Amino acid sequence: MSEIPNNVWENLSIDFCGPFPNGYYVMVVIDEYSRYPVIETLTSLIAKSVIPLLDKTFSIFGIPKEMKTDNGPPFNSEEFRNFADNMGFKHRKITPLWPRANAESERFMRTIGKAIRAAQTEHRSWKQEIHTFLRNYRATPHSTTNVSPAELLFGRKIITKMPNISTNNQADSEVRKEDHKNKSKIKLYFEKKHSVKVPDFTVGDTVLVKQEKKDKLSTPYNPQPLTIKNKKGSMITATNEQHKDTSITRNSSHFKKVGKSKIMTDEEIEEIIDDDIIPNTPLRRSSREKQTPKHLDDYVR
Question: N or C: which end of the chain has fewer CB within 10 A?
Fold first, then answer.
């Protein structure tokens, strides 16, 4: 569970939604303190397209201290690194293949995606509908802070066509209290639903990493053991002892600790992961112990 930033427009999250049937992508920038979203449309996900839109956003709201992104092509380019250095903000990349690390923007992406699909289905201008959606979203109290994004960012309520929702002005401590309380509820619900186990990895452990299932014969874990070299929260970096120049960084849920350093066979991997795949699997009917019916007790062959 992440802590709320110290102030508005200091920590931003950025993500993309699309492509949509018309070829457009939607770039979403969210302030992690106020949850205020800024949306821009573009036709290609390259640094030359993304940087001018971010420059435009910064000219309106100011330059942040930190920007959190995924590992997409626009953010791995030399152009974007130069842009971040020139602007003076820290570029932070989330753990690969772990979108929950950028949960604020990921959650908003699902909402904006529904609004766009609804507009397309009803044959309405999706760009116009985005403006309507944003106006109402920015003016509505957020579920974790109980204050609207616009009020937190600008220090005032904005007028919309929606009925005015009366809320008391809350001090920063109250905002943090509400944010922490609601995030804790979400965290407990998620952990209960997914039976989350607290990872117990340490530097030096030998682990297997999950791999993409390409066919029915593929194993869930790569048989090549790795060694954990760095651990930062739930983000783990592991390397191959035979090829130390290669490393892989994933969330801890992508790893399985093992006690062997050699390349493992498929049978050994299946034995390790068996409990995760089919825990407490009941016996099949054909394997159950058969009992003779009581009315046949006096039967003699």
Answer: C
What's the pLDDT score for residue 88? Answer: 97
Residue 106 and residue 28: Cα distance in Å, rounded? 10
Answer for the pair 258, 206: CB distance below 8 angstroms, yes or no.
Answer: yes
pLDDT at residue 73 tops 90: no
- Cβ-based burial of 163 (10 A; exposed 0-12, middle 13-18, buried ≥19): exposed
Cα distance between residue 115 and residue 130, in whole Å: 7
Beta bridge partners of 67: 12, 91
What pLDDT is attached to residue 278?
A: 43
Distance, CA of 105 to CA of 111 (rounded, Å)? 10
Give the separation between CA 32 and CA 21, rounded to whole angstroms.
30
Q: Domain spans of the chain?
A: 11-154, 205-257
Q: What is the mean pLDDT of the chain?
A: 80
pLDDT tens, position by position, 162-186:
666 555 555 567 777 777 777 777 7
Give the pairing of strands 235-239 and 66-69.
Answer: unpaired
Locus of tokens 């959606």: 133
